[in-house]
Amino acid sequence: MESNTTVKKANPLGYAPIGSLIAKFAIPSVISFLVTSAYNITDQIFIGHVIGMLGNAATNVSFPLVTLTTALAQLAGVGTAANFNLRMGAKEEEKAKEYIGTGIALMAIIGTLLFLIVTIFKSPLLILCGATDTVFPLAKSYLGITAIGLPFLLFTNSSSNVIRADGSPSYSMFCTVTGAVLNIFLDWLFMFVFEWGIQGAAIATVIGQIVSFLLCISYYFRFKTFKIRFSMLVPQINNLIDIIKVGMSNFFNLFIMMFVNIVLNNSLKTYGAQSIYGSDIPLAVSGVIAKINSILSAFSVGISHGCQPIFGFNMGAKNYGRVKETYKKAITVALCLSLVALFSFQMFPRQITGIFGSGNELYFQFAEQYLRIFLLMVSAQVINPITVNYFTSTGNVKQGIFLSLSRQGLILLPLLLILPKFLGIDGILYAGPIADLAAGILSLAMVAVSFKKMTKLENEA
User: Fold this and answer.
1) Are 175 and 215 in contact (CB under 8 A)?
2) 10, 107, 157, 274: least buried by Cβ within 10 Å?
3) Pick from 167, 20, 171: which is nearest to 96 by CA?
4) What is the C-alpha to C-alpha distance for residues 25 and 355, in angstroms, rounded to an integer?
5) Are 62 and 128 in contact (CB under 8 A)?
6) By the 8 A CB rule, do 372 and 431 touch?
7) How many Cβ atoms are within 10 Å of 93's Cβ, its own excluded?
8) Which H or E run contains 160?
9) pLDDT tens digits for range 214-223
């Protein structure tokens, strides 16, 4: 067994203060997710002001396919990064090389297949996602262009995890930020100067995604831990299975989120038609609130991804105390940030939703109600993604998958189907905070059991 001195020389993940490590890895990760949210929000703002409410609804019914892309990116990226860190923590460098090669190949294969499927089945997919007759033409025009960028988005999001795992969180952030900033500038140029409408927003998005992709590709030619050779990029079945196993919990979390988003859109369309708001207002508002919530998600998901190398390496090195300390500090930071968000949502709903364009009084009435009720339990909401990544990164795949399914699939989805039957469209709004609270409690209970097991292992050692 190697001494602590050897571990210190090998990798600071095993000895540096946990607080500074979380700051080093999580802050760039949070910034990356925030910037990604910012350019999604910028798209929504520009489209809302130039096209109007129907433009916001069009991006909303296209968004489940972006979520699917992110889910697949998490499958490949988190699975690759976690296995890489676990093997490096266990001093198995040759095996770590195999995972990196297989992971990069998997990213390229999935991205290509996704582009083909979305392009071929564009119209039925949009109808499935809840597009109304008035929203469908705009949504089809928008998705027809943004589908081109989906493979690049997938590769960038996957690679961000791998680049962070290699010890370069700042560069991972740089890749995302550069594409996002470019997209924001091009949004303004194409929509306000060239007056290309919603197509301009779509073209700007794709160009930004391609630039981020190229920056990620360039990093693999100067990978820090070891040199990546083309001969490594042949997928190996056993490694592929391991990557999918570990990445599956993050994938399920987002895949179920996509499925719930589709159910949500269709429920809003159905029950909205039975209310004073109609179908289009709830669809437009839902898209706006999703973008607002993505800011909070950027913090919780960014923190969870930033902790992944710390969890993985120390679990592989059997430094159980450091694993527990990392989780506790990550949750504390996320909860503090969520309280700020909760205060803002409750006190300034009209001001926040008004940023995303104009609408009539009914539109803003529903927007205020949606923001205040649906995001009432944001403090509980931040617990789930950090806990999912905790289990995934420490090799506890089954627990991670179960928690990924819990909030969206096992709790929120049934509520979205049941509550509106009794409460109408208000039932959809109340489903959100109930699901957040239940999933948060479940996550903490499972972590408590995990901590007891690690404490027992520490005592035995």
Assistant:
1) yes
2) 274
3) 167
4) 31
5) no
6) no
7) 12
8) helix 150-165
9) 999 999 999 9
Q: What is the pLDDT of residues 39-55, one digit of tens each?
A: 677 777 888 888 888 88
User: DSSP states of 360-421 as a string?
Assistant: -HHHHHHHHHHHHHHTTTHHHHTHHHHHHHHHHHTT-HHHHHHHHHIIIIIIIHHHHHHHHH
Residue 437 one-letter amino acid: L
pTM of the model: 0.77
Instruction: Give the pLDDT score at 53.
Output: 80
**Amino acid 215: pLDDT:** 97
Residues 225 and 167: their CA atoms lie apart, in Å, by: 8
The encoded tokens of residue 69 equal: 């892309």
Non-local CB neighbours of 340 within 8 Å, separated by 6+ positions = none
Whole-number Å distance between alpha carbons of 308 and 325:
13
For CA atoms 284, 285, 288, 294, give the dihedral sign.
negative
Dist. CA 172–CA 104, nearest whole Å: 15
Q: Which of 253, 330, 314, 250 is nearest to 26 (CA)?
A: 330
Phi, psi of 132 (to 5 degrees): -85, 175
- What is the per-residue pLDDT for 244? 92
Token pair of 286 as six digits: 């839902």
408-417 b/e with 16+ CB inside 10 Å = b? bbbbbbebbe
How far does the chain reach from its first CA to its final CA, in angstroms?
12
Place of tokens 């998490």: 74
Q: Is residue 272 within 8 Å of 57, Cβ to Cβ?
A: no
Q: Which amino acid is at 433?
A: P
**pLDDT of the residue at 10:** 57
CA distance 13 to 311: 9
Q: Spell out, as residue ranges, where the chain has pLDDT lower than 50.
A: 1-9
Residue 181: what pLDDT? 87
Residue 141 Cα to chain centre, angstroms: 25
